[in-house]
Specification:
605 residues; alpha/beta; Spore Coat Polysaccharide Biosynthesis Protein SpsA, Chain A; Rossmann fold; 4 domains; 9-stranded mixed β-sheet; 6-stranded parallel β-sheet; 39% helix; elongated
């Protein structure tokens, strides 16, 4: 039975997945004929002990794929001949003798020998040879060289059937058959991507439907599944369902996950980043720009933002072009902008914080791929799904960086950054000198203004805080945009010896950079100061403290005042009813506490 020449002995690899009712009997049935038997499957101490007792080997593996189990077993033994079977299969004596004769013959080319099968499915013997289309068949293979891929070898090598029969006890229940079909679909999706990595949604749908019906009718009619009754119908349906699930798996595993873009990342030349939000949100987008340029240095990066945010990106070495949009654009402006941007032939659009306006824009701008990052909303018109199933308080910076993680980039920096020129810094110093500021004293910038009242600590509190700081020997300057002129005037009336600047964004940035401390509501200037590495104190209102203030960035010279109150909604996006809120408990930060923390931060400089 066992060939007398060791080099003529095949390595038998038994792929075992679940259950053990056939495994030991199948193994013992092979031992008198073949001496090198390897079982590969999930841990099963009792049967593994019996296998080893009879001279076999056991390799623990949790893979649900028969081909993967066979490959693991083959890698564990050097052999020219491999007999590959499953733990629910038995070889007839005629087949064993034929295998023994075959391996004694002289071979000069790789070859795969197939076996005739007698199949049982759902506890019934099938009259016709129904085999799973997307599962490799058992067989005997000859190859004098190490195999890279079992799939490729079996599909490319010359095949031949030999005498004898293999009895295959297939899935016993519908649940088991469905589970194995899911595993086959998972493996097929990997094979489809390897063969065709550029399939889009339209191509996936058309191929899935076409191949599903083709496979079903081929199995149902040509392979005579129709003659097998209930078992034949179940078999044909599940065998074809594998195709649909595989294409769905392709879309989920490679398109929505970003792996399709990752596999072709070297072909990306132009990227458009969209951030149409407020000043603070625009500042928080800068780590994405920095990481893209660091990790993809040959890529041209453009930014689309609101016109009032454009100054934030000026002089940014990571940005080639800056495009602006009105805060409340007309349909004609959107159309013109989309047409203009489409002419750039962007390879990738990354829409940070996707909402209706930016989502429609991203859809209408010509590009190969689109990534949209929403905040607990559906992500529409996006090729890659970032998702909203993360922790509710995940910082905005981290959510933005998830967009580039999805295409295989590992961020190296998440500190926001802005760039003030030497000329702007020179102007700021000259301006402060003109205002007769004493540069030997500490300079504190404050911004007692905000667009939403429920984020406002209160002008009276800022007034009292300013007086305390000035009485302590510090200098305080209010920084305002032209639209906040009335608040600046009111502050001058209320606080003696305070300094005020009202002007455009770029000069304001240059002045903030000269400060020793910035104190602000939860608004844009606080993000600006932090990006310029100025110690910053933020008086947070209804938002969670880490949503827009990453705790890793605010862990040293900066501080976030935050009240843990019960009236925030689950996603920290708005106040709970009744609205409008009159109590503003979330802004109840005592002036004395804020003053004490300011003194602490100033003392550490």
């Amino acid at each position: 039975m066992i060939p007398s020449h060791p080099e003529k002995n095949p390595t038998v690899v038994i792929a075992h997945r679940v259950g053990g009712e056939h495994l030991e009997r199948s193994f013992l049935d092979l031992i008198p004929w073949f001496e090198n038997v390897v079982v590969v499957g999930p841990e099963h101490p009792q049967i593994a002990q019996a296998v080893k007792h009879h001279g076999g080997s056991w390799i623990d593996s949790d893979s649900p794929h028969v081909a993967k189990l066979w490959e693991e077993g083959m890698r564990s033994r050097d052999s020219d001949w491999y007999l590959l079977i499953q733990s629910t299969q038995y070889l007839s004596t005629v087949l064993k003798e034929t295998i023994t004769e075959t391996i004694r013959s002289n071979q000069d080319a790789p070859k795969f020998y197939t076996f005739a099968r007698l199949n049982f499915f759902l506890k019934q013997r099938l009259k016709y040879n129904l085999e799973w289309t997307h599962e490799l068949p058992s067989g005997l293979l000859f190859s004098s060289t190490r195999l890279n891929s079992l799939d490729e070898f079996i599909h490319s090598a010359k095949s031949e059937s030999i005498s004898g029969e293999l009895v295959h006890f297939g899935e016993r229940t519908l649940n088991e058959a469905t589970r194995n079909s899911l595993h086959r679909a998972d493996r097929l999706s990997d094979q489809l991507f390897k063969k065709s990595p550029n399939l889009n949604k339209r191509m996936l749908v058309s191929r899935a439907l076409r191949n599903f019906f083709r496979n079903f009718f081929s199995t149902w009619l040509v392979r005579r599944g129709i003659r097998e009754g209930y078992e034949g119908l179940v078999f044909c349906f599940l065998d074809s369902l594998v195709i649909l699930l595989a294409y769905l798996g392709y879309y989920e595993k490679y398109v929505r996950s970003g792996k399709q873009i990752e596999s072709q990342r070297s072909s990306i030349n132009k990227i458009l980043v969209i951030k149409v939000r407020g000043l603070g949100d625009a500042v928080l987008a800068t780590p994405v720009l920095q990481n893209l340029k660091t990790l993809m240095p040959n890529t041209s990066i453009s930014i689309l933002t609101f016109n009032f945010c454009k100054p934030l990106f000026e002089n940014n070495p990571n940005v080639k072009e800056i495009y602006g949009l009105s805060e409340k654009p007309e349909a004609s402006e959107l159309k013109t902008l989309a047409n203009s941007l489409s002419a750039n032939d962007f390879d990738l659009i990354i829409n940070l914080h996707a909402r209706n306006l930016s989502t429609k824009l991203a859809k209408n701008i010509k590009a190969r791929w689109r990534i949209g990052r929403s905040y607990f909303l559906r992500e529409k018109f996006s090729d890659v799904l970032i998702g909203s199933d993360h922790e509710p308080d995940k910082s905005s910076i981290e959510r933005d960086l998830d967009c580039i993680r999805a295409i295989g980039l590992d961020p190296v920096e998440k500190q926001p950054e802005l760039f003030v020129t030497d000329e702007e810094s020179k102007w700021a110093n000259e301006y402060l000198a003109e205002q007769n500021l004493d540069r030997s004293k500490k300079l504190i910038m404050i911004h007692p203004a905000v667009t939403q009242y429920y984020r406002h600590w209160g002008l009276e509190k800022f007034t009292q805080l300013s007086r305390n700081l000035i009485d302590e020997g510090h200098q305080v300057m209010g920084i305002f945009s032209p639209m906040e002129q009335s608040i600046a005037d009111s502050l001058i009336e209320k606080v003696k010896d305070i300094y005020v600047y009202v002007g455009p964004l770029r000069p304001s940035m240059a002045l903030i950079q000269q400060a020793d401390l910035m104190i602000d509501n939860d608004s844009g200037p606080a993000h600006v100061s932090q990006a310029l590495k100025v110690p910053t104190m933020v008086l947070v209102g209804p938002d969670y403290k880490n949503t827009y203030r990453d705790k890793q960035i605010y862990d040293k010279e900066s501080y976030v005042f935050y009240q843990d109150i019960p009236c925030r909604d689950l996603f920290f996006s708005r106040c709970l009813p009744p609205e409008p809120c009159q109590e503003l408990k979330c802004m109840d930060h005592a002036v004395a506490e804020v003053f004490a923390k300011a003194q602490e931060l100033l003392g550490s400089k």
